[in-house]
Amino acid sequence: MRLAILGGGGFRVPLVYRALLGDRAEGRVTEVVLYDVEGARAAAIARVLADQAAGVADAPAVIVTADLDEALRGADFVFSAIRVGGLEGRAADERVALAEGVLGQETVGAGGIAYGLRTLPVAVDIARRVRRLAPEAWVINFTNPAGLVTEAMARHIGDRVIGICDSPVGLGRRIAGLLGAEPRRARLDYVGLNHLGWLSGLEVEGQDLLPRLLADRGLLESFEEGKLFGADWLQSLGVIPNEYLHYYYFNRETVHAYRSAERTRGAFLRDQQARFYEEMRSPGTPAFKTWDATRAEREATYMAHSREAAGAGERAPEDMESGGYEQVALALMRAIARDEHATLILNVRNRTTLPELDSDAVIEVPCTVDASGPHPAAVSPLPGHATGLVCAVKAVEREVLAAADSGSRATAVKAFALHPLVDSVSVARRLVDGYRQAHPGLAYLT
Fold this sequence. Notes:
Elements lengths: L1 E5 L6 H9 L9 E5 L3 H15 L7 E5 L2 H5 L4 E4 L5 H14 L9 H25 L4 E4 L4 H12 L3 E3 L3 H12 L8 E7 L2 E9 L2 E2 L1 H5 L2 H4 L3 H6 L1 H7 L2 E2 L4 H4 L1 H10 L4 H15 L7 H14 L3 H7 L14 H14 L3 E8 L12 E9 L2 E4 L7 H23 L2 H10 L6 H14 L8
Parallel strand pairs: 1-2, 1-4, 2-3, 4-5, 5-6
Antiparallel strand pairs: 7-8, 8-9, 8-10, 11-12, 12-13
Helix pairs in contact: 1-2, 1-17, 4-5, 4-14, 4-20, 5-6, 5-18, 13-16, 14-15, 18-19, 19-20
């Protein structure tokens, strides 16, 4: 099978390739095409993959191209992990928002809207090309904001685009391990939008173990989400929120931590990865060793501002292990290509899962997957306290989609102003103008 990776020079591509190397079954991926608009980055990652493949019999062949149509032709699967504007764009998203006193995180709040507005035109172009050049291909989208981008692409290629995220996987793995259960045997009752979901049950052999966790303050305070949110708040909610809900529940504290920091997360990653790719310009640089050391530093500093605001301390070693989105992607490809049934938390069209949203709204929910694709599983209703937030954020996403389609500045202002983390229409107007000035790619908003 042929896998095209869009954003093939991206830093996390070696995680995907490592997962492919462990797949020895018939019908596996035999050819990986790295597409990237920056040839030097793709060449650097190709060197890392070559190090990974050393000594591995029949490792997937790697092809590098800057031609998108060439990458898509003949693809069985397309993995989309593009970053429009690069990490400099992410740093600018944070900077413009923080100047207005609001959050600029890349998927949440003003930063997420800005990232969506410059990414959607590119994602829609990719979807149209897939429909023309590889109509039988399945698109696995990891491009953020993952739910928003998946919904935009689904308007052109339907259910053949599936969004993935490693955040729910990590949450389920942590809680299952904490309760002494094998993560693969646990059924997660999880529902929401991407980076806006809640775990309301963890069932093993017909028994829901989550109430035992919620009743034990010591256990609640022993894992990442418990440290972020605090036992009192989790017991009040009666569910375990996705870690990204910290930006909503403790917004003031997180914005303060961002504004007080020497560098934002985007600026840190921009500088860190610039060093990595610069080092990789030297032919003598040990490719995999250099990449792996950079990856370890990246993982250790994940959500550092939120942990600082919560006083949660450093990440636990087990939370820095790989096995997240690349394993979800591999399991998804296996289930579709080989009709190996799997249950995965994915970003898919709602259909009738959540009555609060229309059928085409992309949600994040457990799905059973087979050769015909993903099928949303039955889940508990949204908690009452979550319903308004989910509906509000989905309404914002629809305004972002409308602004990207129409190029309307007024609609973009509406999207910002309606977001729960933007507290003024005047701020929304200044955000749009600030982002248009920071990003030439947003000049289409008039």
